[in-house]
Amino acid sequence: MSPQGKKLGILISSRPGSASFQHGVRLAAAALSAGCDVYAYCIDDAVPGVGQPEFQALKAQGLKLYACAYGAHRRNLPVDDTAAFAGLTVVSDLVAGTDRFISFN
Questions:
Q1: Chain segment 30-81, per-residue pLDDT in tens
Q2: CB atoms within 10 A of CB 25
Q3: Helix, strand, or coil here: 10?
Q4: Is 40 within 8 Å of 66 (Cβ atoms)?
Q5: 68 closest CA partner among 88, 82, 53, 51
Q6: Which of 12, 16, 64, 96 is the most exposed place for a label (fewest CB within 10 A)?
Q7: Rounded to an integer, what is the distance from CA 75 to the centroid of its chain?
Q8: Side-chain-facing half-sphere of 103: CA atoms under 13 Å
């Protein structure tokens, strides 16, 4: 089965620089390269990582990047255009609307 046109959801909750965070970013890159529609949602400790150059480069290539608005608020991070800041309803929509959903904690 070809990944072309499939939808992949990725939830990342681990801090930037951790092995889990990096694995999530690499999976997003590989899936985009294979032709998947990729949706990434950063929550908890991962929220500060949405501005990292690797994520922003993937966003420019078509990654749909979301971040937890509450997590940004709790960490005094700006809600800007680095990601679409949203609530947990988006996570529910991603779980329901993607072919595969993977979590990196």
A1: 999 999 999 999 999 999 999 999 999 999 999 999 999 999 999 999 999 9
A2: 23
A3: strand
A4: yes
A5: 88
A6: 96
A7: 18
A8: 8
